[in-house]
UniProtKB/TrEMBL annotation:
Residues 1-336 are annotated as: A. Molecular chaperone. Has ATPase activity. It is found in: Cytoplasm. This is Chaperone protein HtpG. NCBIfam families: PRK05218.1 (NF003555). Residues 24-179 form the Histidine kinase/HSP90-like ATPase domain. Homodimer. CDD domains: HATPase_Hsp90-like. Pfam families: HATPase_c_3, HSP90.
């Protein structure tokens, strides 16, 4: 037997669990059942893909067994299991992206920690909210040697080999003695377990069987009773499913504990049949702008789980959308590479995208504001990448503007407010609102009463260069080229008067600039530097340099 230490981050998360930061401890069971369900999905798929894998798949299920005397609760599955190395990697460390970031934030804000960690999902470690010792025994499908892992949730765990472990994983919780007298936390009680499973795990597509005692003709015997309905939510019609069931399902697949902002259900019939159940979260994940962030719904084929994060089904700019797509006519053997090429997949993806965009468009004002605040910067990437839907994206986009410092505007709103004689949609990109507002480039526009869009996201630099127009109006930077605003002064006359000064300045500064000209764009500043119409902006130049180009 070996004693090993938890990785530092794992230890910190465990501390939070041991000292139970959640008011709702019941969810530990949901997490364990969720893991068991994933393990069953995986073994079915593995056995299908590898006929030589010596895996038992005839009766895949989850078992729950409580022992009132010992005060233990065991969650058992006959799924894929874990090798010894996997136990160390998966249970002893946290590999999820964003962990360090999360822990830093948790330290900063003590009070909202439950809220923050909810974004993350705590999984297996939530066992330590209710148990002071956890024993896990597992054997990977196709292997002969099993592994036993045990920990009290402090700094270390032990790991050992076992010879007679069945395929799959069993997790035994030694329940905390301090909860023994509190019926709220009586996790050995049949009614309590039934209640939790019905509330949180009813939709799990595998049977969850509870060991119960039955008395018949004075004879008491134990048997396993299935206590979930196993109905795939996405295959049921919307009015058959309670809002709460959708929310629980969302939690199961997203590991986000806040309710989704929007639930989208699609059921396509005909030659290419599929069902989709998609969710728009109500807040952005920590890793939304990290390079390695994953995307795409889970893919099922005829109720059989095929893969997580099917990126072929979702463009990058909608990477925050979660959900499930179940296709009827795909082979169970599809690989990610095949999917990228598959015409039906591409067709499906197009429909999902259209549906998501139209759902956003029809959100009420409050929802939309939340949505745009959280995900707007990601969605705008679509203006650069998704040519087909550019119009729709422009329609749902909103931008900060000089019109109202509190409220962003849609382009439609901007166009409606355009002044007589104003031809273009004006914008200025920059690092922050105050830098932009105080830029000398803005002066003439302020004087004229022209509204200017204030673009401060990195992606703004990219799309303004590639999107030609909205509603027949071109986008025009106030910092570029010759902006001719009729401010009443006669520039041409004055140019003659100042010809000497202008040519002297041009000559003197010729190593740094192209020309010096008189401008009507300034009202209080004496001079400003402008780019040529087709120059890259300073911010973009910085970005390119940062990328080594
Ligand atoms: P998550 O489920 O979000 O990945 P968890 O903490 O719940 O995080 O689990 C960590 C990992 O441990 C899982 O991703 C899985 O690889 C492994 N694991 C946990 N429980 C089981 C189980 N019952 N069977 C097989 N693997 C499991
Ligand atoms: Mg989990």
């Amino acid at each position: 037997m070996e004693t090993l230490e938890f990785q530092a981050e794992a230890r910190q998360l465990l501390q939070l669990m041991v000292h139970s930061i959640y008011s709702n401890k019941d969810i530990f069971l949901r997490e364990l059942i969720s893991n068991a369900s994933d393990a069953l999905d995986k073994v079915r798929l593995a056995a299908f893909q590898d006929k030589d894998l010596n895996a038992e798949t005839s009766d895949l299920h989850i078992e729950l067994e409580a022992d009132k005397q010992q005060r233990t609760l065991t969650v058992r599955d006959n799924g894929i299991g874990m090798s010894r190395d996997e136990v160390v990697d998966l249970i002893g460390t946290i590999a999820k992206s964003g962990t360090a970031e999360l822990l830093r934030k948790l330290k900063e804000s003590k009070d909202s920690s439950a809220d923050l960690i909810g974004q993350f999902g705590v999984g297996f470690y939530s066992s330590f909210m209710v148990a002071d010792k956890v024993t896990l025994v597992t054997r990977k499908a196709g292997q002969s040697q099993g592994t036993r892992w045990e920990s009290e949730g402090e700094g270390t765990y032990t790991i050992d080999s076992v010879d007679d472990a069945p395929q799959g994983t069993s997790v035994t919780l030694h329940l905390k003695p301090e909860d023994a007298e509190d019926h709220l936390f009586d996790y050995t009680a049949e009614y309590k377990i039934r209640e939790i499973v019905r509330r949180y795990s009813d939709f799990i597509t595998w049977p969850v069987r509870l060991k119960v005692e039955k008395t018949e003709n004075d004879e008491t015997k134990t048997e396993f009773e299935t206590i979930n309905s196993m109905k795939a939510l996405w295959a049921r019609s919307k009015d058959e499913v309670a809002e709460d069931e959708y929310k629980e399902f969302y939690r199961h697949i997203s590991h986000d504990w806040t309710d989704p902002l929007e639930i989208i259900q699609m059921q396509a019939e005909g030659t290419f049949e599929y069902q989709a159940l998609l969710f728009i979260p109500s807040r952005a994940p920590l890793d939304l702008f990290m390079r390695e962030s994953k995307r795409g719904p889970q893919l099922y084929v005829k109720r059989v789980f095929i893969m997580d994060e099917c990126e072929a089904l979702m463009p990058e700019y909608l990477r925050f959308v979660k959900g499930v797509v179940d296709a009827q006519d795909l082979s169970l053997n599809v690989s990610r590479e095949i999917l990228q090429q598959d015409r039906q997949i591409q067709l499906m993806r197009r429909r999902l995208v259209k549906k998501i965009l139209s759902t956003i468009k029809s959100m009420d004002a409050e929802k939309y504001q939340t949505f745009w605040k959280e995900f707007g910067a990601a969605v705008k990437e679509g203006l650069v990448n998704d040519f087909d839907n550019r119009e729709s994206i422009l329609e749902i986009a909103s931008f900060a503007s000089t019109h109202d410092p509190e409220k962003p505007t849609t382009l439609k709103g901007y166009v409606e407010r355009m002044k007589d004689g104003q031809e273009h949609i004006y914008y200025l990109t920059g690092a922050s609102r105050s830098i932009i507002e105080n830029s000398p480039h803005m002066e003439a526009f302020k004087a004229k009463g022209y509204e200017v869009l204030i673009l401060t996201d990195a992606i703004d630099e990219m799309w303004v260069g590639s999107v030609p127009e909205f509603d027949g109006r071109q986008f025009q930077s106030v910092a570029k080229g010759q902006v001719d605003l009729d401010t009443g002064s006669d520039t041409e006359e004055k140019s003659k008067d100042f010809a000497g000064l202008l040519s002297w300045m041009t000559e003197t500064l010729k190593d740094n600039i192209k020309e010096v000209r008189l401008s009507s764009r300034l009202t209080t500043s004496p001079a400003c530097i402008v780019g040529d119409s087709n120059d890259v902006t300073p911010t973009l130049e910085k970005m390119y340099r940062a990328m080594g180009q």
